[in-house]
Structure of Syntrophin C-terminal PH domain-containing protein:
Amino acid sequence: MMDGLYGMLCLPLFRRRIFFSLRQCPRLGKSGCTPSRSCRLSPQGWCTRDPGQNSPSLGPHLTFATRTGHPQGIDMRIFRVENQRDLSAWTRALVQGCHASAELTREVTISCSLRGESVSLSIHYDTGFTLCRGGPSGPVMYRYPFEKLRMSADDGTKNLYLDFGGPEGELALDLHTCPKPVVFLLHTFLSAKVTRMGLLA
């Protein structure tokens, strides 16, 4: 540990990002080595910082931060890199890894409540949003493609808000847990789709 930092080896894989402490760094060809920590790439956000900017901060160093959604809230980790090239490489690896993870995941289904009624929300990478009464095999209440989504928001506690511009108005879904994993996953799906369409470099 130096200047409040721990040396870590970080490996971004297709579905997960894994960490090894440099004090227990695995040697090439060594089997049975257990990472000190791992997390899924899909429910994740990130940001970067050049010296002189406000956040995330580790003094005058180049840093990037990852924000991973969990049922208990957000787990934020700040990483320092030595130069702009490393920062660009890590940013590219995280973006591409999250997009690849989204394409592999394809669909998630969440049990939740709408106006006190038990429902399930399915978010599919290709077809968009489906809200079913009772469970995923129940009757369909609403179905919308991604391009119909006008607004999404959350209260940081348990509620997810989706507005598709339909006659039902804004849908306030009670997820019964922190909504950040779903929010980050939704943003990753949207980012991956926009990139695949060639709208972002």
Summary: The longest strand covers residues 62-70. The helical segments are 84-105, 180-196. The mean pLDDT is 77. Residues 101 and 139 are 29 Å apart (CA to CA).
